[in-house]
Amino acid sequence: MPNTPRNINLTQVHEWTAGQRTTKSDYLAVEEPLEIRIGDQPISVAMRTPGHDRELAAGFLFTEGLIQRASDIESLESIASEDASSNRSNVIVATLKPESAPDLDRLRRHFFASSSCGICGKASIDAVRNRTLAAPNPNFRLSTDTLTRLPEALRESQEVFDRTGGLHGVALFDVQGHLLIAREDIGRHNAVDKVIGWALLENRVPLSDVALLVSGRGGFEIVQKAIAAGIPVVACVSAPSSLAVQLSREMRQTLVGFLRGNRFVIYSGEERIVEGPQQSQENS
Predict the structure, then answer these.
(1) Residues 77, 49, 221, 176, CA torsion sign
(2) How far is the first Cα of the chain from the last one, in angstroms, to the nearest whole number?
(3) Residue 44: what are its φ and ψ, rounded to 5°?
(4) Is the peptide bond before 206 cis (omega within 30 degrees of 0)?
(5) How far is CA 279 from CA 41, 178, 259, 264, 282, in A?
(6) Is residue 201 part of a domain?
(7) Per-residue pLDDT for 265 more than 90?
(8) Does residue 127 sit within a domain?
């Protein structure tokens, strides 16, 4: 049987403070590869923090457009790595319904990792546009009082971050600011896939009446994944990227940055953020 995934390692370090060196134990956030397969076909390798791997795989398949709904998945099986030096569960095998399986011979996913690429922005936006994703729920409203409480609630849920200081946190909140789910990962886009994968496997997609909070910056891939899941409000503690802002404006999604204390900046969809306490509402 594969080992239970671990997300924290203990190591010895030398700490230098005011001219004094001490030896101490320190916690590290674990980073390991997770290979996602459809059948026997490798699709992606994600450098992630072990834990909630089935959610990560389900979220990845959904947000990247390889499946359209939870019922497309027949099974998600965690198996041991083929690396002889490790028996950890570092492979997820997805079995899809025959009518839902993508054409793997034509499947070509391009990762736009560098903002210096001159065609990446247009190609990325076009790729999302070609998926004919719908704009998120236009009737969702979130109060400023609720919005400014979200970072503290996320921070309180980050158990691994408290011990390592090295993980991103992502959470879903309902309209009243109640925490629905929080996940941590060394990659913020992995954490987003984990929370969306959780919602998918719980048959809660589309997420038309929630807000997504990211502990760091808001990049294009986070906005794209949130749009795929139907999330109307995305907030990040740090800055969004230019391409994230462009996509959120085109898709009429609300994007909030620099959410710290009583301050935040709205980059798109300002009509969904209303002043004062949260009012009851009907979302359609």
Answers:
(1) positive
(2) 46
(3) -160, 155
(4) yes
(5) 49, 14, 21, 20, 10
(6) yes
(7) yes
(8) no
The range of the structural domain enclosing residue 240 comes to 142-274
Distance in angstroms (rounded) separating the CA atoms of residues 252 and 246 = 10
Q: Encoding tokens for residue 3?
A: 């080992």
pTM of the model: 0.85
pLDDT tens by residue, 220-258: 999 999 999 999 999 999 999 999 999 999 999 999 999
**In angstroms, rounded to a whole number, what is the distance separating the alpha carbons of residues 225 and 231?**
9
List pLDDT tens digits, range 117-172: 444 556 667 777 777 788 999 999 999 999 999 999 998 876 654 454 558 899 99
Q: What is the DSSP string of 127-186?
A: HHHHTTPPPP-TT--EEHHHHHHHHHHHHHH-HHHHHHS--EEEEEE-TT--EEEEEEES
Residues 6+ apart with CB under 8 A from 263: none
Output the CA torsion sign for 141, 143, 144, 150: negative
Q: Report the SS3 class of residue 102.
A: coil
Backbone angles phi, psi at 130, to 5 degrees: -70, -15
Active-site residue flag, 120 = no
Residue 71 has what DSSP assignment?
G
The single residue of 117, 123, 134, 135 carrying the catalytic annotation is 117
Q: Are 147 and 173 in contact (CB under 8 A)?
A: no
- How many domains does the structure of the chain reveal? 1
Question: Does residue 47 sit within a domain?
Answer: no
Q: In CATH, what number is assigned to the domain containing residue 208? A: 3.40.140.10
CA distance 114 to 84: 34
Q: Which tokens in the block code for residue 209?
A: 């009446």
CA distance 276 to 55: 35
Give pLDDT tens digits for 60-97. Answer: 999 988 999 999 999 999 988 666 455 567 899 999 99
Structure tokens at 237: 């503690």
